[in-house]
Specification:
The complex is a heterodimer of chains A (about 100) and B (about 220).
Chain A lengths: L1 E7 L1 H8 L4 E4 L3 H13 L2 E6 L5 H10 L6 E4 L6 H15 L8
Parallel strand pairs in A: 1-2, 1-3, 3-4
Chain B lengths: L9 H63 L2 H9 L6 E9 L2 E8 L19 H90 L1
Antiparallel strand pairs in B: 1-2
Helix pairs in contact in B: 1-3
Classes of the chains: A alpha/beta (about 100), B mainly alpha (about 220).
């Protein structure tokens, strides 16, 4: 069985701890990268990254993008507009244009 | 289009014709694969977008509840209450094969404290807003895990579509035209050789006939 984790500022993501997620404290993008590495080493297959340290997602996409696990994805919080842009960028890369812009 | 440098022989022509057939078959197969991957990819992205929007709006409430709880509770009490969860969420990871792309599927095994006999903290010193936030997240856990599966799937499918499209384009615009041009050039060369042979034979025949006629006249 694999674990689930949330990476971000601990005061913002503490409530995820009581819901069964492991939390990894990270104040900036560099710490978030280290936290993602630690989460992976601890056997986490699903790693959510909070929007405050969202820059770590790009790094994780390069490092783990081709691998089946882990899934490093942005935490769906209201402040995470970059997460939707990430999905849009997938469409643009695959199709050539964002044909789902109006969906 | 540059012609491949090969000897203009019938053997090479046959080999190139076989290669051209294989390339055309591969191109057709890869194009079909690309179309099917695209169909699957767009379905997955649509679902992921809908789920993300739904989760964003439901977790908006969680953030508000949690901030409210943090404001009215002593931070130490709050940390103490949440620091030791009664259970640890686990996921079972399986894989699925979509047109030879291996994608993961995550299945949550425990989705909330109620599955392990209730919350891990006492209700006496904590704010009710924490209970609401925790319950909200527990309710959304299944959707969060599903979102992780969908986004990873879309990432892997996107990479595969890019790769397949590059291969299709390389076959369509480079390899197949090169083979066609080379086959054309070899055919022209062989035809030219044949014409030259024929002309030589006709000339030799004419010379022999002339020689024969000259012999008869003498």
């Amino acid at each position: 069985m694999a674990k689930t984790a949330v990476v971000g500022r601990s005061d913002k993501i503490l409530c995820f701890l009581a819901s069964g997620f492991r939390i990894y404290d990270a104040g900036d993008a560099e710490e978030a990268k280290e936290a993602v590495k630690r989460a992976r080493a601890d056997g986490c297959d699903v790693i959510f990254v909070s929007p405050e340290v969202g820059e770590a997602i790009e790094w994780a996409d390069k490092k783990y993008g081709e691998a089946v696990t882990p899934a490093v994805i942005p935490l769906p919080l209201p402040s995470g507009e970059d997460a939707m842009k990430r999905l849009t960028s997938f469409v643009e890369r695959a199709v050539g244009a964002d044909i789902l812009a109006n969906d | 289009m540059a012609v491949i440098r090969v000897n203009p022989t019938r053997m090479e022509l046959k080999k190139l014709k076989n290669k051209l057939n294989t390339a055309r078959r591969g191109h057709k197969l890869l194009k079909n694969k690309c179309d099917e991957l695209m169909k699957q990819f767009l379905d997955v992205v649509r679902e992921a977008k809908v789920l993300r929007r739904k989760l964003e709006s439901s977790l908006r409430g969680v953030v508000e509840e949690f901030e409210y709880a943090a404001a009215e509770t002593d931070p130490r009490v709050m940390t103490e209450a949440l620091l030791l969860p009664g259970f640890e969420g686990e996921v079972k990871t399986t894989t699925r094969n979509i047109m030879s792309v291996i994608v993961p599927e995550f299945h949550p095994t425990a989705t909330g404290p109620e599955s392990r006999g209730g919350a891990s903290y006492g209700y006496a010193f904590t704010s009710p807003s924490i209970d609401a936030a925790v319950n909200e997240i527990c309710g959304a856990t299944e959707d969060l895990i599903r979102l992780a599966s969908l986004e990873k799937e879309s990432q892997l499918l996107c990479a595969e579509i890019e790769k397949t499209r590059r291969r299709v384009n390389a076959l369509e615009y480079i390899l197949i035209p090169q083979y066609v041009e080379t086959i054309k050039s070899i055919t022209m060369k062989l035809d030219e050789n044949e014409r030259s042979n024929l002309t030589r034979l006709m000339k030799v025949k004419d010379m022999m006939l002339e020689g024969k006629r000259a012999g008869e006249q003498k």
